[in-house]
Every structure is written in C-alpha cells, then in structure tokens.
Fold:
Amino acid sequence: MKVFTRKRIALFAVAVVVLSAAVLCSVRPQIALANSAAYSWDGSVNQGVYPADENCPLEVESEVLTFNIVDNPDYSDDMSSVTAEYNFYNPTEGDITARLMFPFGSIPDYYRYYGDAYNVDAEKYTVTLDGENANAELRFSYYSYSEFDYEVASAYLYDYKKADGYFSEDTVLTAVTFTVPEFADIAQTENLKDPYTYVTYTYDSNIKIITTDAWYFNDENQEGKVTVRYEGTGDFTVYFAGGVPQDITAYAVPWQENTNGKGYNLDYDSQKDAAYAVGGNTTFGEYIQSFNPFTGKYAESDWYNFSLDYITPYSIYKNYGVIQYFTEYDLEDIDEIIMYWYDYDIAVPAGGYVKNSVTAPIYPGMNTRYEPTLYDYTYYLSPAATWADFGSLTVIINTSGYILDSSMEFTQSGSAEEGFTYTAVYDGLPEGELTFQMCLSENPEKSSGGYSVIIIYLIVIAVCVALVVAAVVVLIVSLFKRRKNKRINKLW
Structure:
C-alpha cells in the first residue's frame, strides 16, 4: 500500500489550492459589463393635433393613426414614425382659418448615446393639407415636466421674445476676465489639485452675474457678500448685468483631498491673488445666441425664450443673483428639457372638408432585460376631445414584430416573413390612451442580468473550498495516523 508522506500530502494540498484558484479565475463573472449599460430607457410620448384656439369649431369626421415601426427602433437612420391623418369638417356658414399645434415630445435619453440630439428626426417629415405641403414651422420650447400637459407646455411657446422683469434682449452685460495664478509646486506635491479661484463682492439686488464656468458658493464667513468659485487653471470670464461691482476681490487656493477620501482641505498658506480685467460689453440677447446649437435651423426667438425659461426658475430669484447658464455638459443634455412642435395654419371653407396629414418620429421606451428587447409605445388620444366633435378612429400598426400587450383590441394580419399589420377601429374616441408593447419575438426571454453567473461562481467557490478543506483534513488525519503508528512501533 502506498504511504502518504507529509511531503506528498503537502504537495496534494498545494495542487488543490492552485487548481481551485485556476478554476475561480476561469469562471469569474463579468458583472461590470452587465452593469455598464442601462437596462431600461424612457421613450417619448406622442399626441395629436391641437387647435391653438380652444373655441375652434372644426370637427374631426375621422382620424387614421398609422404606426410604421422599424425592426430596431432604438436608433437608426430610418426611425419609427406615426402618421395622423385627420378629415376636418367645417360645420359653420363661414370660412375658417385655424392655427394648429402638433407637439411630438422630447428627444429620449438614448439619443445621447446612439445619435445626435440636435439632429431632429422631424426634419425628415412633412405636414400636408389635401396632399400639399402645409409649410409647417418646426419649433421648440422649454419643458421640464415628466408628464405631458398641453396647457402647461403651450404656455412656454411664444410668438415674441419674452422678458422676465429683469432681463430683456437689450440688457447690457459687461465681461470681466479673471486670470488664475500659477502654482509651480502643485505637480510636485502629492494629492495637491488645481486651485479653486474665489470671486467675492458685496451683494446688490440690482446686479446679476452670469457664468458658465463658475458657480455660486455659499461662504458662511462672508455675510452680505456674493461668492462664486471656479476650478481650473488659465482664464475664465463672467458677465455682469446692472454694472460691475466696485469691491471685487479674487484669490486662488490649491486644495488637497483628505486621506480618507472624504472632503478636502484648502492650502491657505499657498493662497495667491487673482488678477482680473474688465472687458467690453455685449447684450443679453447676443450672449444667449452665442450658445445656440440650432443656429439657422429654428427661429432665434425660440432659443432666446427657451434660455430665459431655463435660467428663470433656478437662478434669478435665489443664489444672490448668480445665474448658472449652460455649461458644455448642460448643452449635451438639453434634449431632456426641450419640447418639439409643428406649428401651421389650416383653411377650411364653409361646409367643406380638408384632409390634414402629420407625420412625426415616435420614440419608444426600451427594456433590454429581455432578449429580444421590449419596446413600449405611448400615444395620447385624449387631446382629440378638444375638437368640437370627433367621429371615427382607425389605428394601424405596421411592424415585423409582435404586439405583446396593448390597451386596444387589435386584429392581426400578415406573417412573420412579410410583416404584420394590426388594426383597430372605433366609432368615437375610445377611453384612455393608446399604449402597446412590441417585440421581434413572440416569446422573449428575460435575461438574468448576471445573476446566473454569480450563482455558478458561488457554487464553484463552495466546491473549491470543500476541496481545500478535504485536503487539509486528509493531511491532518494522515499525520495523526503516522504519529500513532510511530508510538505503537516504539511500544513493540
């Protein structure tokens, strides 16, 4: 019989440990990859045409809603779209010219990842009246609410350049440029960061400061003072409205992170004064337009009013007149607070009819926890109740996928090879809004999101630990037996 020496047993235990480590490394879970992307994305809600005048007497004799859904509607050059075709009737004895508004929502979050938020897909479509181009104007306005409310949204769409009680288009702004002093020892000192530059002056309710690089800093030691702080090197510029304060002080202080990673300490021993120079003047309107990412595409008045609505609720009436305007990061995210519109006129003769067709992009919500992805669509039908009367509604959905869930009862035709058409017909306006969920598979499978890998990983760990424990037990038992045998041999 083979004798297990301590050396052999030790080698066996080491081999088990090494093998266990190798197995663990080979099956390590890729959780970081799974969590690095969002599982769920919000889409954008669509709704129908509104009359600008709530007392408009036009009636909708019939409406046909046609959804054309592409295979991968998250982002592509060929986006999904919805066409609303209205048959308007004028029941009066006089001709009617009405202004119509068609809001088609905000650009969804995933556009920042898959496409260009400023490249609005609505530019690819048209509005027609009896088959002729209606020359609809594509417009936008400020809207930061999660749920759509037409009365709230339309209040932000102006036909003029607004004023807010302080700023107007001609308000004079004066530029003041600050130069951050150099700190040669920063690079040689561990954890010492680029300096904070503080700009302080006495508060005056008639003076506002507009900045993109600095921000309001609440300095409890500076009562009656306004302080803004800038992080970085080089020069930065702020703009004053209402005059330049006469008692500006500016200084820069390097800062150091605390060793525990919480908070920071300012190195006041290295503090230096920051020089500044008063520059030329510009107007508030010119300043606003210098940030306009839509120059030449939309009316300048829309960007002006959007900007004023953006800064009004956040800065003008608090933070002692410090107005944080668009930073580069803010401009990348403005699609979250923009509402896009079609704005056009329709003329309907007395007792006559006009067919109005509006096509707009439609952006679904996405749930990537399923394979294939689930797409959720929402279309508000309730705005149609604003018309004097509403006749029939037909909803058509063209897709190569399957409707898994819907607020309506659809009749399906077609095939997976040729594509499906789902149809629903109603006399009158149905209650509630239209929602439906689409998928390229009739039976999508929910992914584990990495949890199955974790379970496998834990099982492997348990097995490896058991092997190591077994090796140690074998080692101890063998040593015990060997010592016992030695004692018995000595007795004999």
User: Anything to note?
Assistant: Helices lie at 6-26, 31-35, 111-114, 150-154, 284-289, 300-316, 328-332, 451-491.
